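User: What would this chain look like folded?
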Amino acid sequence: MTSTFALTRALLVPALAMTALSAAVAHPASADANRSPQLDWKPCAQGADDALGGELDKAGAQCAELTVPLDHSKPGGRTIELGLSRLPATDRADRIGTLVLNSGGPGEPTLGMPLKTRAAMKDVAARYDIIGLDPRFVGRSTPIDCGWPIGMWLRSAGQTRARFDHQAAVQRDLAERCARRHGDVLPYAGTRDTARDVDAVRRALGERRISFLGYSYGAYLGAVYTQMFPGRTDRVVLDSAGDPRKWGPRATQGTEEEAERALRGWAAWAAERHGTYGLGATTARVLATVDAIVAAAEERPLRVGSFEVDEQVVPYILAGSGDDRPEKRAGFASMVRTLNEAAHRRPAAPDPEFEGFLAFVLTSAGSPLVSPSVAITCADRAAPRDPDTYWNDVERSRARHPLFGPLKNNLWPCAFWPTAPREPLTRVGNSTPALIVAATGDTATTYEGSRAMHRALTGSRLLTLRDTTAHGIYGEYGSACVDAKVNAYLATGALPETDQSCRPAAN
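Assistant: Here's the prediction, encoded as structure tokens.
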């Protein structure tokens, strides 16, 4: 499940070509002045019911824990444990080095990511040790859970000030719950602390330099790492990156048009399949069906299976049209069809996927994942504290973007967060060689955001998948062109001399 900004997957990076000849050679382990103790690699499964650990063990992976300071400025103080996995290189003679991964979110567990990444890398995977590192306070890395009664905090503001004030009270309650449970560690949840953890892993692995692959927020983390630790990266791939200047609790502002464009694209697709979904035979009629669903939810909550879906949740669901692969559009159309049944006050039973999504959003089931996501975001950048700021922005955006404006400009728990960021937001601007991968129709970390990252990382190259609505491209979307270009870079370390483009394959 990826949804905050999908939960966010953001950032990118550029690169010079010929400085990469030396990068084609493996970088031998070297003693670092601050090198951490060696890692004790063990089987990953933590019991018979540990499905992920079992999968990792079956694939030949190993797992370990690394002790790091809670506050890196106090190395002798309180510590936390980081959980990481490793798929060792099988071609040791031609080993390139270590590839550290981050799945995004923020706050997505990454321990199991090496399995999918190895498949995407094809033959070049044999030349890397592939590392899955759960970020601090996530998964196996001293996890936090704020005990929230709902999962996803993202809500639309609603039609009235009274509805806005009600959900603002909910957001305040979420922040207060988190403060009661984890107030002592929340100041140390930020991206800069996670970047320091990544460098501690580098030292523990005995590597002079590491390669890095990050998606969405993970791309932002990678860019921050290059800024804080210059010269310590080899090959860097930042997929679905956003503008590093905009990262924070209000990063969704300004993405309304991308969301509307994706919804129209899906509506055109659904209109061609009216016989299957019954949502309308033209794009305009499908969009009219969507409007009717929204209006019905404003009148009173929709009953979907055992769940009630109100006017503040429906826009969040409808923002999920940002992937143009046929199977994704079909799944979204199935959800809208179910909502349409509920809007007509008919029995509406969600399929298992939609039911799981609603449980994640509306119950405490999603709390373990979204708690660290909010904690990371709020620790990175302060949000405005006055609810009127958000309401005024909502009202201004509503005229042009009636569906998505009140969603994208709404407040978060960060408006009531108990602790202020300990450090300023990282100003990303350096010449680290990197390959930035972006789709022109990304609704979460927009294409313009990726271009901004490209400008910030002056040594980068931008690889664009054109005419595509998607978030997360390399090894995920199914573009043979993108995958081949990324793998060529990972294999040789040579960036292309100019920015590159790919086109989607015909469906």
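The chain is about 35% helix and 10% strand. If you want, I can go into more detail on any region.
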